[in-house]
Specification:
The protein is built from nine helices and no strands. By secondary structure, it is mostly helical. The chain starts with a helix and ends with a helix.
Length: 244
């Protein structure tokens, strides 16, 4: 498991560092800090990290995704805390490195709308993202080459939609590190970026399990861990059944 935790840390570092560094370099000559640039950078780095590390850890890179996988029965609850801790560590490290390079305060999420609307926006955006994630990551009928492109382009779409209102986080680990270094309104606003993504991701995972159309189509995230745990449980049940 340590290599999976490290993959989650590194992947989350990348997906947080990229948009925060983009924001930090916005004042430099030739920089593009527009919403379009932020959306594409956020989506492309997710795409890249899924292809780079997805075969190791299933590329959660998001505590809301990890919890939603567990709720749907596609990831063991016993690994939720270490996965989310690794993701939080990656996000905080990325924000720290960006702060050293460009100064603190860049890339933080602060809602531009009232909190109820901000939470609602994050719920909707994360619902869309998680519906795509759980479909392409845990359904055996989906080609293995699809997840990176599907999830990456969904992130681009979601940031374009939600960027003006909330920043389009969809990820508690994405918002945590920048909030810690930015101060001001960013840290008090952080609950928006925990509650919204968690609710949206869990709702999407439960919906897709209802839509999947049969347990035979499902697999874990990561699948090899899911299969290994099933084998251990079957072996344990067999041992119990053999006891006279």
């Amino acid at each position: 498991m340590p290599r999976r935790y490290l993959a989650e840390l590194v992947g989350t570092f990348a997906i947080v560092f990229a948009p925060v560094a983009l924001a930090g370099s916005g004042s430099l000559r030739g920089a593009d800090s527009s919403l379009m640039a932020a959306a594409w950078v956020s989506g492309l780095v997710v795409l890249a990290m899924i292809y780079a590390l997805g075969h190791i850890s299933a590329a959660h890179f998001n505590p809301a995704v990890t919890v939603a996988f567990a709720v749907a029965g596609r990831f063991p609850w016993r690994y939720v805390v270490p996965y989310t801790a690794a993701q939080a560590a990656g996000g905080i490290t990325a924000a720290a490195v960006a702060a050293l390079l460009f100064g603190p305060g860049h890339g933080a999420h602060v809602p531009a709308v009232p909190w109820p609307a901000a939470v609602g926006m994050e719920v909707c955006l994360t619902f869309i993202l998680m519906l795509v994630v759980i479909s392409v990551a845990t359904d055996r009928r989906v080609n293995g080459a699809i997840p990176g492109v599907a999830v990456g382009f969904t992130v681009v779409l979601a940031v374009l939609i939600g960027g003006p209102a909330t920043g389009g986080s969809m990820n508690p680990a994405r918002s945590l590190g920048p909030a810690l270094f930015a101060g001001g309104d960013a840290l008090p606003s952080y609950p928006v970026y925990v509650v919204g993504p968690l609710v949206g991701a869990v709702l999407a995972s439960l919906l897709y399990e209802a839509l999947r159309g049969g347990h035979e189509h499902g697999q874990g995230a990561p699948n090899d861990l899911y299969q290994a745990l099933e084998s251990v449980e079957r072996a344990a049940e067999g041992s119990v059944n053999r006891i006279p």
